[in-house]
Write a structure and sequence with these properties.
The protein is of the alpha/beta class. It has three domains: about 1-145, Alpha-D-Glucose-1,6-Bisphosphate, Chain A, domain 4; about 175-290 and about 435-490, Medium-chain alcohol dehydrogenases, catalytic domain (Quinone Oxidoreductase, Chain A, domain 1), CATH 3.90.180; about 310-430, NAD(P)-binding Rossmann-like Domain (Rossmann fold, 3-Layer(aba) Sandwich). The protein is built from twelve helices and 22 strands. The protein has helices at about 15-20, 25-30, 120-145, 205-210, 285-305, 320-330, 345-350, 365-375, 390-395, 415-420, 440-455, 470-480, and strands at about 1-10, 35-40, 50-55, 60-70, 75-85, 90-100, 105-115, 165-170, 180-185, 195-205, 230-240, 250-255, 265-270, 275, 310-315, 335-340, 355-360, 375-380, 395-405, 425, 460-465, 485-490. The strands form four sheets. Strands 1-7-6-5-4-3-2 form a seven-stranded antiparallel sheet. Strands 10, 11, 12, 13, 14, 21 and 22 form a seven-stranded mixed sheet that branches. Strand 15 (about 310-315), helix 6 and strand 16 (about 335-340) form a beta-alpha-beta unit. Helix 8 (about 365-375) runs parallel beside helix 9 (about 390-395). The longest helix has 25 residues, at about 120-145. The chain is elongated. It starts with a strand and ends with a strand. The relative contact order is 0.10.
Length: about 500
């Protein structure tokens, strides 16, 4: 991390200097580097949480958020939310103190930020000289010319305020068209939480199950309120609650969690759900890969114990999870078989590592699996009840059936006697139980990013839908016509 610290003495009383600096949108009036600036959303320019959107005279664009403002301490803190300048995790603090004679002001300006490799000195000097030292001279000149002479009255502001959010939810269980967008307010982060400006939101079949009411305890309906689905998203940290370590405003992050609510533009979530994103992983890719990639890691590493020679059967092999599992299992040395519903999907599955693809729309595949490899050691099943008997027939002795989803309908209870004939085993995992600790989440996420970086995983096809079009996205997912991942963009 870079750290820039600069201080100066301004020949003006502290009240007069503060009157200019506490206005978060005044810098285009006095700083030579700033071309134009505006506060987004019609908020006041001294309102904590407001965002100023400005253009520099060199053409760069920056969005910064006011994090704290104290009229008692003459101090403000702000961060970069988005910028064309590669200042990463930039957080700055301005502090004023009266000089002894009372007619002059000591101004302390400091910041911390990360930079891309090789640009450390260039960006350090840009901030130190082009922003801070130039700003000192510019404000001194501005005040000498009579700029903004009248101090504003002191006000007490909270450290964070609710901000507008757009969200999509349901008020009763049922079909996709029940998903309806609405405007709401996103509350500030509580202790241990971070508030995130979400750019991309992952769509998963569990969202469909919740919408249909198959898991009512997970997404309960409350009279007069919308129940919002969604388990993962990617974006930028707006602000953090108390007792949050390792995350700063401006960080690019992704998260997944066991409590739905991700179908929105701004959301506060526990910091323990959150991982920082590598620079090479864009928000849409993170939203498409995080939950599915962690699921693939869990299936192959923890449950399937997949390695050289493992005979692996993957249903929906051209789906979001299926493509990742096929590619990763192939790299581990497994023999990968997959089922798909069309020849087009079969081609995509082969491109992602599937050795043999079975095209079927009627859930019949067991004979083909037995002919190809003598039975599967592991079956990864997201189909549900319609594939029940065929899964049992497709398994080899001591085979393991992992029930991951229920696209064709809820799986009926499985009698122990159904497993006895071939000494089969059965599991029904939930990925959230495998990332309970932040360390576990970080380790698994890093394996996904590493696999993406070294070519083990390829970015799957990603279909983009606007947040307000969540109903259309769900309807398309349920047609079984999709290939790869679906995401919502805010």
């Amino acid at each position: 991390m870079q750290r820039v610290v600069r201080s100066t003495i301004i020949d003006a009383p502290i009240e007069r200097v503060w009157a200019v600096l506490r206005d978060f949108n005044s810098h285009d009036q006095w700083h030579d580097a700033v071309e134009t600036s505006r506060i987004e959303g019609g908020e006041r320019s001294d309102q904590v949480g407001c965002i100023r959107n400005f253009t520099l005279k060199d053409g760069n664009r920056i969005r910064e958020q006011l994090l704290t403002l104290s009229d008692t301490d003459y101090r403000s803190t702000y961060c970069i939310v988005e910028a064309t300048v590669p200042l990463q995790r930039y957080v700055a603090t301005i502090t004023l103190k009266p000089v002894t004679d009372g007619r002059r002001t000591f101004w302390h300006w400091e910041s911390s930020f990360a930079t891309p490799p090789g640009q450390e000195r260039e960006l350090h000097d840009m901030v130190a000289k082009g922003v801070y030292e130039t700003g000192f001279m510019n404000l001194q000149r501005h005040l000498r010319q009579g700029g903004d002479l009248q101090p504003r009255g002191s006000i007490t502001m909270p450290t964070a305020l609710p901000v507008p959010t757009r969200r999509v939810g349901i008020r009763r269980y049922g079909e996709a068209e029940l998903l309806q967008p609405e405007d709401a307010m996103a509350e500030p982060p509580a202790e241990g939480e971070v508030r995130i400006r979400q750019r991309a939101i992952g769509i998963n079949f569990i969202d469909v199950y919740l919408r249909r009411g198959w898991m009512p305890a997970m997404l309960p309906l409350v009279t007069g309120a919308s129940a919002v689905p969604g388990m993962e998203a990617a974006g930028t940290v707006l602000d953090v609650g108390s007792h949050v370590n390792g995350l700063l405003p401006g960080d690019r992050v992704a998260y997944l969690g066991p409590v739905p609510g991700a179908y929105c533009s701004v959301r506060s979530v526990p910091a323990d759900w959150v991982v920082r994103l590598p620079p090479a992983v864009e928000d849409p890719v993170a939203a498409a890969l995080l939950l599915k990639g962690l699921t693939a890691d869990m299936l192959l590493r923890d449950l399937g114990h997949v390695g050289p020679g493992t005979r692996l059967l993957v249903h929906a092999a051209a789906g979001g999870v299926g493509l990742l599992v096929c590619a990763w299992a192939r790299r581990l040395g497994a023999r990968v078989l997959g089922t798909v519903s069309t020849e087009q999907k079969a081609r995509i599955a082969r491109e992602h590592g599937c050795d043999e693809v079975i095209v079927t729309r009627d859930y019949r595949f067991a004979d083909a699996v037995q002919r190809a490899c003598g039975g599967a050691d592991v079956v990864i099943d997201g189909l549900g009840d319609a594939a029940r008997d065929e899964n049992l027939a497709a398994l080899a002795r001591r085979g393991h059936w992992i029930s991951l989803g229920q696209a064709s309908g809820p799986l009926q209870p499985l009698a122990p006697d159904a497993l006895v004939a071939k000494s089969l085993s059965f599991s029904r995992p939930v990925v959230f139980d495998y990332v309970v600790e932040p360390r576990q989440l970080a380790e698994r996420a890093q394996r996904v990013w590493n696999a993406l970086a070294d070519g083990t995983l390829k970015v799957p096809p990603i279909e983009h839908f606007a947040l307000d079009a969540a109903a259309q996205a769900h309807a398309r997912l349920e047609t079984r016509a999709t290939i790869g991942a679906l995401i919502l963009i805010t």
